[in-house]
Amino acid sequence: MANVITREDGNTFVAGGLAFKFINSNYKDHKTTDKEVVVLKSADILRSYDRVFDAAPNKNFLEIGIFEGGSTLFFAVAHPDFRISALDIRDPDDAVLRHIHDLGLNERVKIHYNTSQSDKDALEKIIREDFCDEDIGLICDDASHNYGLSRRTFELTFGRLARGGQYCLEDWAWAHWKSSSSTAVALTNLVFEMVVLLPSTRPLIDSIEILPNYVRLVRGPGKINSDINIDSMMRLRDKKLTLI
User: Fold this and answer.
1) What is d(CA 188, CA 194) in angstroms, rounded to the nearest whole number?
2) Is residue 113 packed enough to be buried (19+ CB in 10 Å), middle (13-18) or exposed (0-12)?
3) Which residue from 65, 192, 206, 207 has the highest number of Cβ atoms inside 10 Å of its Cβ?
4) What burial class does residue 207 get, using C-beta atoms within 10 Å of its C-beta: 0-12 exposed, 13-18 middle, 19+ buried?
C-alpha cells in the first residue's frame, strides 16, 4: 500500500528504501539513477491507486508505459503480492533494471523495452508468457497518450481483464490543460467512446469513473474474445462522434 511512503518532502519521498523524485515538466532532462528514481505520478496520485489495487480481482498487473521506471518500482514495493509486467517503447534502462535486481524483484517484475503499446503480437506474447495466459486484474495505460495508439491498446487488452478487472487510462485530459499547446487529436475522444461503450456493450463494462488524473473502467461479466473493436461495438443510431 502507499503507506510505504516516508520522508515526503515536496516532490521527493522514500518508499521501499528507494528515493523517488516526482517530475511534471522538462521530462527529457531527468533520468533514474542508482541513487534516485524518477516518477511521473505524485505521492498523492500513487496513494489514490491503493483502492484500484485493492479492487483488482487477481494479482496480475499489466503496466503500459513506464518512462524512467518510477511507477513500476513503486508499485512493486508497495504491492508485493502483485505480479507486474511492464512495457515501453524506449530502450532498456540499466538503472531501472539494477534496482529490480537489487530489490530481488526479478521473479515477479518483467519489463519489456522497445515494445509498442499497439503491437498485437508483442502484447499477446507478453500476456501469454508473463501471466501464463491468465486473465489480468489491473491494466494501466500511461504510455503515449496518443488517441490512436491508446485506442488500439484498449482494444487489444480490455478483453483480457478478469471479471471485475480494473482498466486505468492516465492523463486523459492533457488536451484541456492550460499548459497544453498540442494540436493533436485529444485523448478525451477515447473517454467519450468508453462512455458510449458502457451502455452499448452492457454488461461488458460494469462502470466508468472519471477522475482528474485517470479514467477507471471496471470489467463486467459480459463474454468476449480477447480483442474488441470499438467502432463495431458502439451503438450510435447511424450518427458519428466528432473528434476534438
Assistant:
1) 10
2) middle
3) 65
4) exposed
Residue 206 carries which DSSP code? E
- 93-107 pLDDT, tens per residue? 999 999 999 999 999
> In residues, how long is the chain?
244
Q: How far apart are CA 194 and CA 199, in angstroms?
A: 9
Which of 117, 129, 109, 127 lies closest to 165 in space, CA to CA? 127
pLDDT tens-digit readout, 115-173:
999 999 999 999 999 999 899 999 999 999 999 999 999 999 999 999 999 999 999 99
**Which one-letter DSSP state was computed for residue 241?**
P
Q: Which residue has the cell 521506471?
A: 69
* Side-chain half-sphere exposure of 72, counting CA atoms within 13 A: 32
From the centroid of its chain, how far is CA 119?
16
Task: Say if residues 58 and 112 touch (Cβ distance below 8 Å).
Answer: no
As to burial, measured by CB atoms within 10 angstroms (0-12 exposed, 13-18 middle, 19+ buried), residue 122 is middle
